[in-house]
Amino acid sequence: MASKLIVVVGATGSQGSAVISYVQSHEPTWSIRGLTRNVSSEASKALASKGVDMVAANSNDLASLQSAFKNANYIYAYTDFGSIMGDCMGRFAKGEVSAPIGLEANKIEQQHGRNIADAAAGVPELERLVFSYQASVETLSKGKYTKSYHFEAKASIAKYMLAHEGLRGKVSLCQLGVFNTNAVKLPDFFGIRKQADGTALWSPPLAADTLLPWIDIEADLGSYVTALIAAPHAPIEVLCVSEWLTGVQWLELWSKHTGITARYEASDGIHKAVESTGIMEQMSQTMRFMDEFGMKVQEPGVLMPEDLAKEGVAVQQTKVAEYIAREDWSSIVG
Q1: How far apart are alpha carbons 76 and 25 in whole angstroms?
Q2: pTM of the model
Q3: At 273, is the pLDDT very low, low, confident or very high (cuts 50, 70, 90)?
Q4: In sequence order, which residues have a C-beta less than 8 Å from that of residue 146 and are 6 or more positions away?
Q5: pLDDT tens string 23-68
Q6: Which sign, positive or negative, has the C-alpha torsion 176, 115, 149, 12?
Q7: 215 and 221 in contact (C-beta within 8 Å)?
Q8: Residue 131 pairs with which residues in a beta bridge?
């Protein structure tokens, strides 16, 4: 049987590299093409050394995507809110963008997503496009929270893809939960901090009893993506979860592993912040939505992981304790 080709957008990022690693381990007959803005980066070179065909492409450049998607059987794609927002912050500092800058980032991110969809639709060999999205906070909150611009961008892209005539029956969606790695990679916003007395404090902007869908990107994202590819039909929309836990439960596992006494105190910093870009209000509304409505509230048709068995596929769900055990906590515990 001829080898299948999967193209991974954002191959050097946490999502893309996780999907590539999983495919190499579980689908060894597939060929992998990784897309990145800079094929000369160390991360790109590392993937190339493992047999990944690394190609320069940018989601803001439709022609580059059309070239990079050629002959693809499967595509995994996501849009990078973080880098887009970073660019908008730089433009805001120069007076080129007005507040809230999330609105400008939303427009740019939507265009990136439409470029991905339009380029994918022109690939005759395409069988499945799996897109990483988020649900509309405005819709699920019944209009109460309207400024979660990054969630709204991804929700709009998902709708565009599902309605695209050239992608009919080819698109499935994975809605990612809260990344376990936030505790390490977002130290100012989500980090655990060692205290002078040797204890630790975790103060993310979420209530202690909010039940959250934690996702182990490194271990489990590839399993969800390949399951959606293997499913006999599309579209399928699934909330990608490794384990549901409150922040307090998560921290108890961390404390048990590290041996460090830790306490959870929800921060209200972003809810009270006064700043000129509008970013804090954007993040505050997103967090308040999670506290008030929870992420088990979904639009009709969105599946939970256990529902995938009815579609004839199964996914891997790695326990948070397993993630904590393999993570490097030296930046926190010393």
Answers
A1: 17
A2: 0.96
A3: confident
A4: 138, 285
A5: 999 999 999 999 999 999 999 999 999 999 999 999 999 999 999 9
A6: positive
A7: yes
A8: 77, 173
